[in-house]
Description:
The protein is of the alpha/beta class. The chain has a single domain (9-228), classed as Rossmann fold (3-Layer(aba) Sandwich). The protein has six helices and nine strands, in the order E-E-H-E-E-E-H-E-H-E-H-E-H-E-H. The chain has helices at residues 32-42, 88-107, 122-134, 153-163, 184-197, 215-228, and strands at 9-12, 20-25, 51-56, 60-63, 69-72, 115-120, 140-144, 171-176, 201-206. The protein has a seven-stranded mixed sheet with strand order 1-3-2-6-7-8-9, with helices on both faces. Helix 1 links the parallel strand 2 (20-25) and strand 3 (51-56). This is palmitoyl-protein hydrolase. Residues 12-225 form the Phospholipase/carboxylesterase/thioesterase domain. One of its GO terms (molecular function) is carboxylic ester hydrolase activity. Its EC number is 3.1.2.22.
Amino acid sequence: MAAARKLHLCAVSPTGKHTASIIFLHGSGDTGQGLRAWVRDVVPDLAFPHIKILYPTAPERPYTPMRGALSNVWFDRLKISRDCPEHLDSIDSMAANLGSIIQDEVNAGIPKHRIILGGFSMGGAMALHLACRFHPDVAGVFALSSFLNKGSVAFQAVEERCRLRLSVPELLQCHGTSDDLVLHQWGQDTTALLQEAGMKCTFHSYPGLYHQLCRPEMELVRQWILSRLPPASS
């Protein structure tokens, strides 16, 4: 495999001692800086005294749903649908790149059980692949307006770990009922299949919300993050 490509990062530093980290992945066509700005517009104070938030930017690549035009996407896919195979080559290649960011945090003294992975839309799907298949020892994973394809290898990975009585991270999933790009049902089905495989999941619906973030959702994410990554005891 080729060496992992360095990704551009937008970071929000903790106001105190850094003892935990979040890696928050944007949706297709966005950037880390764009997601950071959007989050700040929705909930101006998503910052923590002890947690660093990292917003990486996906590299440009030809994206099949845009007829091969270049776009900042974490992986390629045939179409935005649950009913097609996953493009595992691009998913796994990007997992290696993002894995280097996780390793950088570990090298800086943050253990994996003090790291949360999350994302919006495609970023949530990428975070699920990372947490279920590559880094199951993280503190948790959140997926907002996201889904996994039917027959995803992520379901199989969770099922296998649970069969072997190995740990899997906890999932928080949120979705708007009026999302007309990534259907609410796709999100519900993703949670149901991960639960069936043995993962502890919580799913929250937001009535009338389209393919976007909202303040109540982000406030819930904040509280969930703090429940998974409380301040380290001195």
